[in-house]
Amino acid sequence: MLDLEVEIGFARPSEAGEIARLSREYIEFGLGWRYTPERIAAALRNPIKNVIVARQGGRLVGFGIMTYREESANLDLLAVKREFRRRGVARRLVRWLVDVAVAAGMENVYVQVRQRNSGAMAFYNRLGFYQIEELPGYYRGREAGVIFCKPLRPVFVVT
Question: Among 3.30.70.1450, 3.30.530.20, 3.40.630.30, 3.40.50.720, what is the CATH number of 7-151?
Fold first, then answer.
């Protein structure tokens, strides 16, 4: 299937509710709802976070949220509406956020995935993320999580 033509840009405050609903439906299902519209609105105002969206014809089809620290970044949330998946939208969102991390001088980008989400794990592997740790009960004590890392700088090994 061909990549979907989308525009990637910063989320608008008016999109906080839709982003929160996507998080609840596609990311937080079965865990309770933490990324409420209020929390998404706060993320939009937070200077160490980027909240971006993919739009097609003005319609929000996916989003990503990244937190930038001193030397590393964390991909907090990423979701694409079901009917727009497997069309390059998630890849473009991650690429945009990683490009910002590279420009900011970050060394690594981390992301956490539910252990049972084999599709997400394969997706991050294809994007150059490596599994570095498994944490039982990571998701609110209910589910194991898998931590992935994407190194952004070359690693030199001295022998």
Answer: 3.40.630.30
